[in-house]
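Hi L.,

As promised, DUF2541 domain-containing protein:
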Amino acid sequence: MRIRLVMLLLFVGILGVNAQSNSWIKLAEKTVAFKSETDKVTLVGKEQRVDRIKIKCTQGTLQLKKVTIVMSNGTKKEYDAKAGGVLTKGMSSRSFDVPGKDEKIKHIELEYDSKGNVVLTKKAKVEILGKQGKDD
């Protein structure tokens, strides 16, 4: 009986470690202004190597218009993000494929329109999340 319990605990532990290694990780964060603009977000370290990214709104409201992923070799991939609609706190965009899986991400350009005003609402904050492997 004890052997079965130990085996079950080991099995569950191994599954938990595997699930964590395939989850979304935070690559960067950005506070956006109360206007329509394009911001460049530079990633550092090993987080530059991911297969997919997505944008998560952690505060405020914004309309994501375009996401451009620029790789270290100069390759660019531009995505029209208007279909994602307006992102509010807790919402994420769809995931975007990173071009050139063997290359590092040099930077990501976000074109957006932040909703709200200085007096009534907080500035929007977003996180860039990355993941290796297929989408869940």
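The chain has one domain: 24-131.

Thanks again for sending the construct details.

K.
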